[in-house]
Specification:
- This protein has a domain of 172 residues.
- Helix 2 runs antiparallel to helix 3, helix 3 packs parallel to helix 17 and helix 6 packs parallel to helix 9.
- It is mainly α.
- It is globular.
- Helices cover 58% and strands 0% of the residues.
- The protein starts with 21 loop residues before the first helix and ends in a 30-residue tail after the last helix.
């Protein structure tokens, strides 16, 4: 993508070896401590998350400083961006420990819906949910009827086998998606610890298969349309096909989705679609009774008019960009426009995160390494700020600053040409 020329960027580049870079480390430390001051790790253990993070981070930074004296005797003990990356990694590990309860609970929702489908009993909720289920697999099933034959087939299998197929398949598809986006193989293991990815895998959400359809976007644009079948709000990314005038791919995606619906109607019955739409309305009523059903989606915190305006603004910004930068911004738009948002939803913002220069990237990763909540919007705000401040983003030519040695893409860009 070619940068627009206009007003000079007044924010100087944040160099890896600049003392100002330590401000990012301080910002991340304040965020982690503020967010986790009332949390335990593991949950209910009585050992404070913030204290554990401070202790583990101090040890990790000390070991990294000792190692750096051997690797670069004449250089600084530790550079700011290195410190931020280490701080984020420690937070990732602790957050994963706090998340590690009731594994594959979202898959349990899918299997329960599949079992109801096989038995011919109602699948979609008919009355608002006023009390949070103790068993999280009791949450409502929200996906369209064309997905029910798949979940019905899985429900016929022994549960351990269905779990193994789903978890193994999700892991493979999620990692393939990241490779398509451009993440080198050596970075895949650390990504497994990153809470948005870890959560999606641990709870068995469809976010990882949906991420593959998004990751294939530059080469298989029809997948962007099909993503809406899995998660409706991800269909916003299909607007990129209109932006790029890829009309044939948009029509192909729509045709494939229509065929999928037509092929499954004889199994589900046309009434299932009316039940689904009614179930979505009932779910909206449930959200008003149980705000936790919003997750940390914007409608939980701002009036609906403000939410709609912010979503529309991000979509317009995505339309103003070109090429794969535009596709990355549309991915971030799906996060902003999501009516209910949980940690794995931030996976759609991965290409936008990777467009940031290394210090800002690691700050964003750090914001997304605490237990999920409204503070995760700091990462989205960081991405949005980079759209107005070009020096926060990576250049199209190879980076020469030492900071970019810490960037997972090296001198590359998201979605490298193949």
């Amino acid at each position: 993508m070619t940068e627009r020329r206009g007003r000079p960027n007044r924010l100087p580049s944040l160099r890896l070896d600049s003392p100002a870079g330590w401000l990012l480390a301080i910002a991340l430390a304040v965020d982690v401590i503020a967010v986790t001051r009332a949390s335990d790790v593991p949950n209910g253990s009585g050992f404070g998350y913030a204290a554990a993070w401070l202790l583990a981070t101090a040890v990790a930074l000390g070991l990294a400083s000792l190692a750096s004296t051997r690797l670069r005797p004449s250089g600084p003990l530790l550079r700011p961006a290195e410190a931020v990356a280490i701080m984020a990694l420690v937070a990732m590990i602790l957050t994963d420990v706090t998340m590690a309860w009731q594994p594959l609970r979202d898959l349990g929702i899918y299997l329960r819906a599949g079992q109801h489908f096989v038995e011919g009993s109602p699948v979609y909720m008919q009355t608002p949910l006023a009390v949070q289920p103790q068993d999280r697999t009791g949450y409502p099933f929200l996906y369209p009827p064309c997905t029910l034959p798949l979940f019905g087939a899985l429900a016929l299998l022994p549960v351990p086998l269905a779990q193994a197929i789903w978890a193994g398949g999700s892991l493979a598809l999620g990692l393939l998606a990241l490779r398509l986006i451009g993440l080198p193989g050596r970075w895949l293991a650390p990504v497994l610890l990153w809470p948005p990815f870890f959560q999606g895998l641990w709870v068995g959400n469809v976010a990882l298969p949906a991420l593959l359809l998004y990751g294939l976007g530059p080469w298989l644009g029809a997948g962007l349309v099909l993503g809406a079948v899995i998660k409706s709000y991800t269909g916003i990314a299909a607007l990129w096909l209109i932006r790029e005038r890829r009309w044939a791919q948009a029509l192909a995606g729509g045709a494939i989705a229509a065929l999928a619906v037509a092929a499954t109607v004889p199994l589900t019955g046309p009434g299932a679609w009316a039940d689904w739409l009614n179930g979505l309305q009932v779910y909206q009523a449930s959200q008003r009774l149980l705000p936790g059903l919003y997750g940390f989606g914007l409608p939980r915190y701002v009036p609906i008019a403000v939410y709609a305006a912010l979503a529309a603004a991000v979509v317009l910004v995505a339309f103003r960009a070109q090429g794969r930068e535009s596709l990355a911004r549309f991915g971030t738009a799906t996060v902003v426009a999501s009516p209910s948002l949980f940690g794995h939803g931030l996976l759609m913002a991965v290409p936008s995160l990777l467009s940031l220069r290394a210090p800002w990237l690691w700050l964003g990763v750090g914001f997304l390494s605490t237990p999920d909540g409204p503070q995760w919007w700091l990462a989205v705000a960081l991405i949005a700020a980079s759209w107005a401040v070009p020096s926060m983003r990576r250049r199209t030519q190879p980076e020469t600053e030492p900071a970019e040695a810490l960037h997972p893409l090296g001198a590359g860009q998201a979605w490298p040409a193949r």
